[in-house]
Amino acid sequence: MPRTRREFLRLASVAPFAVPALRASGESGVVSVSLEATEVWTSVGDRAALVYTFNRQVPGPVIEARAGDEVRIVFRNSLSEPSNLHFHGLHVPSTGSADNIMLEAEPGGTIEYRFTIPVDHPSGTFWYHPHIHGSAARQVSRGLAGAFLIRNEADSVPEIEAAPQAILVLQDFAIDASGRVIEPTQMEKMAGREGSLITLSGMDRPTLQMNKGGWLRLRFINASASRFYRLQVEDHSMLQIATDGGLVPVIEPREELLISPGERAEVMIRGDREAGDYRLLNLPYSRGAMGTVNGLDYQKVEVARIRYIEPSVDSWDLPERLRDPQILGAPSVRRTMQLGGGMGSMGGGMAMGGGMAFTINGRTFNENRVDARGTLGAVEEWEFINSTAMDHPMHIHTDPFQVIDPSTGAPIPVWKDTLLVKAGSRTRVRMALRDYSGLRMFHCHILDHEDLGMMGTLYANPSE
After folding, report:
1. Beta-bridge partners for 319
2. Are 146 and 167 contained in the same domain?
3. What is the pLDDT of residue 124?
4. Which of 178, 340, 371, 448 has the most other CB atoms within 10 Å of its CB?
5. How far apart are the C-alpha atoms of 447 and 457, rounded to whole Å?
6. Would you say residue 410 lies in a domain?
């Protein structure tokens, strides 16, 4: 007998797959989490390593909240350096005790974060990580990252929710034979550090199970400081169902998937091949001049396996449309963001690393300077012009955006918060400054580039 869409939701409980991470779930509309950043010996992949952890694990616990929930996070810094949290992609305030990266916990200190997820916040895969300018790449590359999932019944798709899922936090580590982190050279910082050990949710080449004839949902988070992942599932197509900002209107088939630092992507895979193991591969990709450190960008690397198990007890198709498309209106403000940098590019601000700097509009980041001012409620269009020989994934805090289709000049109805601007290219995005006044950051998510100055600020003033 055919099942109703709502009956699909009950199938998830019997799916033969467990998410390889801890979960903190809210009750009575409140999600309470304690996170401690500490340096400990732990297992990274199949090796013992001295790394930075949240709650003594890599990656940190999965935080899960529903739209409308109040989130309370007590963050304790047990590192020997200042640290904090950024809630990457969440549309919450960037001030006060919410997603305020100007807050810092000194060694032994505590920050109590508190904010409410808007009732209209889309479901999606988000994440959290430190955001201390000058130390972001160091802290993230040593392991500090965790998934943050939002669920909203208003955009729930039962045929997707019914599938078993894997939350795959992509991280890379540079670890020596003794298990200690290898500090990058100045040139490696300039390129953006990479490590030779790639892990998925803390595991080295894990095996993911799926039912033959069934579905598997993969939630990818690129939590590496610099590494790009060009992913392919052997002999399978990936059906992309979501990007940074939640569901896409129409499912997009992908033979491969490029995910730059900070980006997320969700795909569905159908078990319609012969029983056996199929590799999840990271394919070669060049980030441009200086864009590889250890040569792995030019190799095909197995990062996981997908193994078919017993046949699925149910089969179903995905709907053709996942949500209604939304298009931002015409902008009232246009801005240009010129990306530059190199040796000696100091450009009006202090840079880290002995004269190396990356710039936006000729200036390096200065926390005491506001680079742009906007009006709350306004729609803005930004053009990123990358005049460097390296790719730069640009991330904007607080407000998601839509990429402008260069062939039509209209926004693509997909929500993003991180955008790859390839070397020597230009790309436009459109966003609305919604709900929250105050400071917003925008920066390259190759975190060494951010630390070396490629970050700016926009202050959203209340509308008159």
Report:
1. none
2. no
3. 97
4. 448
5. 16
6. yes
With 0-12 / 13-18 / 19 or more C-beta atoms within 10 angstroms meaning exposed / middle / buried, residue 432 is middle
Taking the C-alpha atoms of residue 386 and residue 176, their distance in angstroms, rounded to an integer, is 35
How much is the average pLDDT of 63-78? 96
Which residues, in sequence order, are bridge partners of residue 321? 250
Cα–Cα distance, 244 to 257 (Å, whole number): 14
Same domain, 172 and 94: no
CATH number at residue 450: 2.60.40.420
CA distances from 271 to 122, 154, 275, 317 (A): 28, 28, 9, 12
> 183 near 153, Cβ under 8 Å?
no
| Six token digits for residue 89 | 């992609």
What domain count does the chain have? Answer: 3
Confidence of residue 24 (pLDDT cuts 50, 70, 90): low
Q: Which residue, 88, 166, 169, is CA-closest to 127? A: 88
Whether the link from the prior residue into 93 is cis, omega within 30° of 0, is no
Tokens of 308: 């078919």
Q: Which two tokens stand for residue 411?
A: 């926004």
Does the pLDDT value for residue 7 go beyond 70?
no
**Pair of tokens at residue 453:** 């100055």
- Assess if residue 99 is contained within a domain: yes
> Which among 153, 176, 209 is the end of a domain?
153
Q: Are 59 and 169 in contact (CB under 8 A)?
A: yes
Distance between CA atoms of residues 70 and 116, nearest Å: 4
Domain enclosing residue 48, as ranges: 5-153
Which tokens is 304 given? 């996981």
Write out the two tokens for 368: 């005491």
Backbone angles phi, psi at 173, to 5 degrees: -135, 140
57 contacts 203 by C-beta, under 8 angstroms? no
Task: Look at residue 438 and tell me if it is in a domain.
Answer: yes
C-alpha distances (whole Å) from 422 to each of 291, 367, 389, 394 are 12, 27, 9, 10
pLDDT in tens, 205-222: 999 999 999 999 999 999
